[in-house]
Every structure is written in C-alpha cells, then in structure tokens.
Amino acid sequence: MAKIIVDGIEVDVPPDYTLLQAAEAAGKEIPRFCFHERLSVAGNCRMCLVEVKGGPPKPTASCAMSVKDLRPGPNGEPPVMFTNSPMVKKAREGVMEFLLINHPLDCPICDQGGECDLQDQALAFGRDRSRYTENKNAVENKYIGPLVKTEMTRCIQCTRCVRFTAEICGTSDMGNINRGEDSEITTYLQTAMRSELQGNVTDLCPVGALLPRPQNFRARPWEYSKTPGVDVSDALGANIRIDARGREVVRILPRLNEAVNEEWISDKARQSVDGLKLQRLDRPYLRDNGKLRPASWSEAFNAIAAKVKATSSEKVGFIGGDLSSVEDLFAAKALAVALGVKNVDCRQDGAKIDPANGRASYLFNATVEGIDQADALLIIGSNPRWESPVLNARIRRRWRQGGSQGGDFPIAVIGEQHDLTYPYEHLGDSPDVLQNIVKGEGFGKILAKAERPLILIGAGVFARDDGPAIAALAAKLGVKGDWNGYCVLHNAASRVGALDIGFVPGQGGLNAPAMAKAGALDLLFLVGADEIAIEPGAFVVYVGTHGDRGAHRADVILPGAAYTEKSGLYVNTEGRVQMTDRAGFPPGDAREDWAIFRALSAVLDKTLPFDSLAQLRALLTRAVPHFAGIDQIEKGDAGALKLPAGDISAAALVSPITDFYLTNPISRASKVMAECSALAKSAALKQAAE
Amino acid sequence: MSVRRLAEQQPETFEFTPENQAWLESQIARYPPGRQASAVIPALWKAQKQHDYWLPQKAIEKVADILGMPYIRVLEVATFYTMFNLEPVGKYFVQLCGTTPCLLRGADAIVAVCKQRIGHQRKVTADGLFSWLEVECLGACCNAPMVQINDDYYSDLDAESFGKLLDDLAAGRPTHIGPQNGRQRSEPFGGLTALTEFYGADGKSGPLSDAQAAAQPANPAE
C-alpha cells in the first residue's frame, strides 16, 4: 500500500492505483472522457489533469500516472496531489476550451443532450463563453452498422469505441484514421461492425457522436421512466434498465452487475425492444372453422373448459416456454397438478436434463465470476459467442490475462469451429474424443494439471441422446476438490428456474417432444413455447405474447405479458435468482400469465390458492426456498454430481443457435434484429465466397 | 494536411514480387514471434515502392494478412503517415517543402512553377510524368528551398533551376542530385570565410588529416 495526500486527505491505496483512482478513493471526482475502468488507458483527452508534488512540475494526466510513480517529499512525506487548485482549474478550462473549438453547438438537436459527459463537464469545468469566431471543423458521417448512428462532427476522439471493439469485443472494427485535426473515427472503409456487443459503443461514447440508431430522435433522457429489469434474450440474465416513455418501452440499457454482465449487454438484449410492440397479441383469439377470430376472455376460457371436460388428464399437457418467468411456470404447474396432469415439460429442445440428479447437474457451477479464476477451459458443443456474447467477452478477458503459470490461457473446443474472438485448440467435431481426454491424453494433460478447470457444456449437448453420458464425462473433468468447474451454458432464460420448480414430466408423464407428436394429446397448453413444432391433432392453447410459431398453431390464444410488462423471477444459467420489475403494462386485454392461469383455474373449478403475485411468491418460496434469495446463488452440491455414464456417439456436435439475432419471439418480431440478421448472413456469405 | 482517402480507382489484386516477399520476411524475422506487426511500416513502404509509389487498398489488406493485423490497424498507419501515397502519383513525384525556412528562401516561387508546369496538387499530369504535393519540413533547411523527387533531394533551387530540372526529368536526361547552385553540400555559397587553415579556402578539401593538423602551428596567428 502507498500513501498519498489528495487535497489534504491522506489515503492508503495500492501502489499500482492511478492518481485518478486514488482521488476517487479520497472521495474526489475527476472529470474524464477517454478513461474507462474496463479499457486500457489512452490518456489522450487530457481532461483529468491534476497538480502533483513529487512529480513533473506541470499538470499531470491522472489516469496515466500511478501512485508509485510519484516521489515522496524531502522529509519522506507522502506525495501530494491537488484536484481543485488554481492550476488544475485553469488546466481543465483550457482542455475544455480546446475540446469545444470544433464541437458543434447542436445540443438542442442532439440525442445525447441530458446524458452527455461533454455537456455536463463543460458546465462544471469549462469557461462560460467561447473566444473562437473561426469556422468549426466538419467531419463526414460514417456508416458503421445498423445499430449505431454516427454524427462524427461531434466526436472528440477519445477512442473509447476503438479500444472497446479491439479489447472487449475482439473484432477490432473501429480505428482512428488520418491525424491531427483530420483525425476520424471509423470502421474499415465504413463496413458494419461485426461484434454482437457493438451496441455498447453508444453507451461508451461520452458525446453524441455514436448514438443508438433505432432510438434516433425518440425521446429525451429525462422523459424516461427507468425500471430495473433482467434480460431474457439469453440465459446469462444480464441486468438491464428498461427506459419507457409513457407506456412504450423505448430503449434498454445495461445495469451494472459485476458478477453477471459487468456493464455490457448484447445487441439482442439491447435492440430487440421494437419487437415488444410488433406482432403482439392484445386480445384472446379462438379458432373457428380453421380461422382465428377475436374472442372474449370468457369465451376462450369456456372453450378450454369444454375441452378439459371432454378428455382425461393423461391426454392433457403443458409445455413451458423459454422466456417465461418462474411465477408463470409455477402457476401453470399448479394448474397441471390441480388437473392431475403429469405431462409437464419446460425442455422444448428435448434436453435430457433431469433435476433429480441435483441442482449441480444443470448449473454453470463455477459461476460467471468463476471464469476469472479458471486456469483451463474446455468448451463442449457450444458457441458462446452466440449463445451468450457477454459471457464470451468474459472468457476473452480471461484469455487476455494469460495462463496462471505464464503462457497462454489454455482453451480447447469440441464441436463446431467458430470465430470466438480468442484462439483455441480444436479437438474435433465429435464428442468421442472426450474419452481420451478423460484418460489424460492431449488436452486432458492440461486439464489434469489445472487446479480450476472449467468445462463449458452447451445446451445443445443435452438435446442429443448421448447428452447425459457426455455430461458425466465433463463432470469427471470439472470437479476438483472445492472447485466445481462443471458448467452448463443454457440458452433459455427460463430453463434453470423451470428446472428448479420441477417443471418436468411426473412419473410416467410425456416429455415435450413426445407431447408434440400427433395423437399424443388431446389438449396442450403452450406457456409461451414457440421453439417446438406441434404436430396436428391436439387442441392447442397458447398463452404468450407474440404471433409467432406457437400462436400460429394455436386453437385458443390467451395474450400474456412480455418480460418488461411484469414483475417476475428469472434464474440465470449459474443459478442466480434475479427479479425484474414492470416497466409498462401489456397491450390491450393481455394479462400476466400467472393471472391467466389463476382465472382459468376458477373456470375449471380448480381454483388455485393465490389471488396476488405476493401470495404466489409466498407459495413459491415455501416450495423452493432459494427463490427468496434475490441476486444470490444457491450452490449445487458437487458431491451429488453423479451422472449416469453411457455410450457416446461419433455424431458431430452442433450449437442449437444458427442465427444469433433471431432466437426468441421478441427478437423475431423485431425489425432491427431482422436487419442485423440479414447483414450477418450476407457477411458470412461474402466470407465463404472468398 | 487534409483528409486523405483511398483512391477511387483501385486495382483488383496486389501481390508482392518474390524478391520483395523474401525481403519482407527478412524484416519480419527481426521481431520476436507475435510481434510481426512491428514490420508494418517497412511492409507498406515496400508495397508502395513496388506499386508505382502509391498504396492500393489491396496492398493494405495484403500487408494486414501477412502480419496478422486487423485491416483497420494497417489503414490507420497508412493514413497517418503522409509518406504513404493513397492515390496514384506521377512517375516523378515532387514533394515540395513549404515550411518556414524554405518559404523564406523562395519556396513560393517553386510552388508557382509547380502550379504552372504540373497543375493542382495531387493531380497527375496527362502524360503521367509529374505530380506534386506540398509537405512539411524535410530537414534540409540549410539548402532551402528544396524538393524531394521520388527518393532524391534537389535543393538550392530557384524558379529557373527547378524549371530546368523538370525539363531534364521529362526529357529523360540525367540530373544532378543535391544542390542545384554548385554547392557540394551545405557549405557557405561563396567559399569559407573562417577556418580556412583547416578546410582550405574553397571549403571543399575537407578536414585536414591528423598529420597535416599536427604540422599546423599551435596558434595560427603567430
């Protein structure tokens, strides 16, 4: 630890702290543009100048000088720095004046206005008027992708976006071309950025140069009502802030959570918001003579009640969807239990995950933060870049830190080869190489030596017949002493929560693929289940939000609430329970799914024992106590992680995600995601042609 | 300085010649493994020399591929340094120094000749022989005003000698590289006025050898 006196306050900080961090430790805020905690230090905006004693006798960029670089005083006193001396004030005024020489005065028409670092800091640290009468520099606008609109005249060349795409995304899309006053930030010849995290540059940009294109001229920052939520586009459960203007959700921003998403979210999480307004189901529908017609709630309920009466409980089934909250599925399961139905399943993809094997068998046991501690990584049948881009960025960061014993952080992949933004050893397409690895051959040697090996198993693995056998071998590799590196990366936001409440077939019940077969059932409830094709035969009741696959097949549609329109619990892939709040109401007659099941149960004379969400949650936590621990992880028991061994086939592993941008009903309804998807496809075609 | 963009007319492909490829590999070998990117400036320079003194897009991409760099990183380097020409230049590419010492010594007269004989900056003459560009100090202020034509400095110019130089180049006649007013290097124009004992009155004889210096009286005034 090193001592430093900041404005007369003595603080004790690690010697590698920068002066900026030391000042923050002393409670002094230092203005900055180019500095960002998660990016490398550039030191080019000069806004963070401070005065130091024991260093150069001139203003010093506090982001680029560390405490250990300062000399102590003549009698061994700690070094001294000032953040509010006349020299600092003058330096800041000077820097701000330079920055504003070429910055346009278009704040009234700039979307960043109100949440602009330059605006705020000009007010706090700048001069009150400009001394320049010369013309301002103008810069050509650039095309850098469908998600980011540019206004490059406003750019102050902080290079945060350049460092973000190079360091975090790993795609090195952006750069600073030309020099001096002609410097321009652009992508290579104005091609679109290729990262699934590119939307984050709009948050990083301290001015209005990079703005989210879909939200162009939509609202002012102070007009939004801001609601904390949880992203459901993948199973990471990234923390988000839902910004609504009136009843309309306009944008989604990341919310800081060091343990999950830090401060990034994927483009799908951020920009599928327009999908929340399109293709929405806003009233019940009933199929008459092969055509869906609008109906009232009581009409729809009566039609369902007639079907329930006409059949037996063995011929009724429930399939849970990928975006449903725990409460929705809990209510659906309660109805199933009341009706005596055993055909209940949340695994639309036919994943052979059995909650009876213990919670450790389906969690990302090492936790997302555990990636930082891992010393070797084996990826089996997953493309984390598409299955969870933010998690992939975390793996990339781990790779950038290098191996724990020097050298590279060892990463190997079994399955499809994709550009994961970090190098890896490809061990083969088929999982049968796993046998040799368990024996300690090849990459197995590295895993055997590793103290904290992380075995990442894609959700697609479990959909195979040999899924449990592969998982059993993975568990052998991953569990070492206290370290449980057996990590399942799910794709469905609802999956872990649904498994926690046991949304799986009871004794003798059918699983989801069996329920979908023609003639298996008479009556099938789809709780937002859109990823499974239901064969003709059964009378299908679809409870969901969008006119997607499930609704097209449905005989009765009951309109539900999307994830921004309800308070609900979601459990992410590592088992972290998170709660999302309501940012707006569902459209038209749509209701929250749990309330629909409660109302339906009354019509069926099986009234469920809750009248409010609070009562439902009380029942839920009584059944599964760990749901009471919001933002906590109930660890799975690694000792109980004994999966049945079995034969492994030689068939190649494939990731279930073939199009990152279109994986759920919301993103499939989104025009922005469709544009991104088309662009990514044409880029892939172009690459294949070369 | 002004905004520089890649040329609109671009060749379809770019490949290094086998000799240049071998030379480039020897340059890359100078750097530790994983640090090949350090060879980006020599690589671009060689590509430019091979390709009529300008860098096409495909050459930038080729260099990036060879060095394992993202394209944008190489583009940054190519646009940063004005010694990399992004657009076609004449067979004789005149880089004219317009910085203060040259300007004081009459660079504006050279500029006038360029404008009259060649035309606007960055425009190649119809016969493809000449183009010119005003650049910042080339470090030959003692011989101001000066121009660099391709790899060679021509200094101590005036409108007349520069015009003649252009005529000679256009006609394919040999030219004298260096000062155009009879000077060898940057010695005083009218001969030495000091230290003649050491260097000779014409100043062209160079420093005395050790033996000659020893034979000199300790104090020349005596």
State the major sheet of chain A: 7 strands, mixed
Give, in spatial order, the strands making up the sheet with the most strands of chain A: 14-13-26-25-24-15-16
Structural class of chain B: alpha/beta
**Which CATH class of the largest domain in chain B is shown?**
Alpha Beta
- State the name of the first-level CATH class of the largest domain in chain A: Alpha Beta
Q: Give me the number of helical elements of chain A.
A: 21
Mean pLDDT of chain A: 94
The count of DSSP E runs of length 2 or more, i.e. the number of strands of chain A, is: 28
Strand proportion of chain A: 15-25%
- So, CATH architecture of the largest domain in chain A? 3-Layer(aba) Sandwich
The figure for the number of domains of chain B is 3
Strand content of chain B: 5-15%
CATH topology value of the largest domain in chain A: Rossmann fold
| Corresponding CATH superfamily of the largest domain in chain B | Glutaredoxin
List SSEs of chain B in N-to-C order.
HHHHEHHEEEHEHH
Query: How many domains make up the 3D coordinates of chain A?
Result: 4
Structural class of chain A, by secondary structure, is alpha/beta
| CATH topology type of the largest domain in chain B | Glutaredoxin
What is the count of helical runs of chain B? 9
The overall pLDDT of chain B, averaged over residues, is 89
Query: Based on the structure given, which CATH architecture of the largest domain in chain B is correct?
Result: 3-Layer(aba) Sandwich
Could you characterize the architecture of this molecule?
The complex is a heterodimer of chains A (690) and B (222). Chain A folds into four domains: 2-98, Ubiquitin-like (UB roll) (Roll); 104-277, Alpha-Beta Plaits, CATH 3.30.70.20; 285-355 and 510-633, Rossmann fold (3-Layer(aba) Sandwich); 363-489, Dimethylsulfoxide Reductase, domain 2, CATH 3.40.228.10. Chain A is 27% helix and 17% strand. Chain A is built from 21 helices and 28 strands. Chain B is of the alpha/beta class. Chain B has a five-stranded mixed sheet, with helices on one face. The radius of gyration of chain B is 22 Å and the shape is globular. The interface between A and B is medium-sized, with 18 and 14 residues.
